[in-house]
Amino acid sequence: EVQLVESGGGLVQPGGSLRLSCAASGFIYSSYWMSWVRQAPGKGLEWVANIKRDGTDKYYDDSVKGRFAISRDNAKKSLSLQMNNVRVEDTAVYFCARGAVDDSGNYCFDNWGQGTLVTVSS
Amino acid sequence: VLTQSPATLSLSPGERATLSCRASQSVGSNLVWYQQKPGQAPRLLIYDTSKRATGVPARFSGSGSGTDFTLTVSSLEPEDFAVYYCQQRSHWPPITFGQGTRLDIK
């Protein structure tokens, strides 16, 4: 059974930093792209970042580019999101998700963790 | 941009639900649907317009192509009342979602 368990959320002040983690199990982790998707309270889903199987390619939404960094450790089956210079509008539940990529590079999310809440407030 | 309609749909168990997702440019058949229940993570329902994900009941079906897509639930069960999001999987980055359709019990 695929399991994705996020941790690291909490309260952080504007301009501060936070590191989210996701522990994966139940599948061959190194064979999959991985992603972060967030959801502000009462709002819809917003993609944050993707990372390729071997960690060589990374993609970000413009809203977080230059502030957030996605990384992975295939040996530890873990995914991370380093969040720097956070803003009030970054307040959201952050989901770790497994990427499903077809031969044409089309991307969706086939398994999701339960999420971790990040609150940015002074 | 993906636009879902209606924003809210109020139906009774046993009724048929039809949810729409319209793309601002053609996405071919690369359209995905997710279901999200309160306090839960999203769940992949349909990918590539009409392919059901593992374990998804046959009462869920998807159709469409290009810019207009539909998710149909043939006969609503109590557990189907949730929020549904569409996502285009071809033109990325960025990966974009629709704003969601809330399916409420009437």
Written overview of the protein:
The complex is a heterodimer of chains A (122) and B (106). Chain A has 122 residues and is mostly beta strands. Helices cover 0% and strands 53% of the residues of chain A. In chain A, the strands form 2 sheets. In chain A, strands 2, 4, 5, 6, 9, 10 and 11 form a 7-stranded mixed sheet that branches. Chain A has a 4-stranded antiparallel sheet with strand order 1-3-8-7, with no helix packed on it. Chain A is globular, with a radius of gyration of 14 Å. In chain B, strands 2, 4, 5, 6, 9, 10 and 11 form a 7-stranded mixed sheet that branches. Chain B has a 4-stranded antiparallel sheet with strand order 1-3-8-7, with no helix packed on it. Chain B is an all-beta fold and 106 residues long. Chain B is globular, with a radius of gyration of 13 Å. At the A-B interface, strand 5 and strand 10 of A face strand 4, strand 5 and strand 10 of B.
Write the layout of secondary structure elements.
The complex is a heterodimer of chains A (122) and B (106).
Chain A: E1 3-7, E2 10-12, E3 18-25, E4 34-39, E5 45-51, E6 58-60, E7 68-73, E8 78-83, E9 92-101, E10 107-112, E11 116-120
Parallel strand pairs in A: 2-11
Antiparallel strand pairs in A: 1-3, 3-8, 4-5, 4-9, 5-6, 7-8, 9-10, 9-11
Chain B: E1 2-5, E2 8-11, E3 17-23, E4 31-36, E5 43-47, E6 51-52, E7 60-65, E8 68-73, E9 83-88, E10 96-97, E11 101-105
Parallel strand pairs in B: 2-11
Antiparallel strand pairs in B: 1-3, 3-8, 4-5, 4-9, 5-6, 7-8, 9-10, 9-11
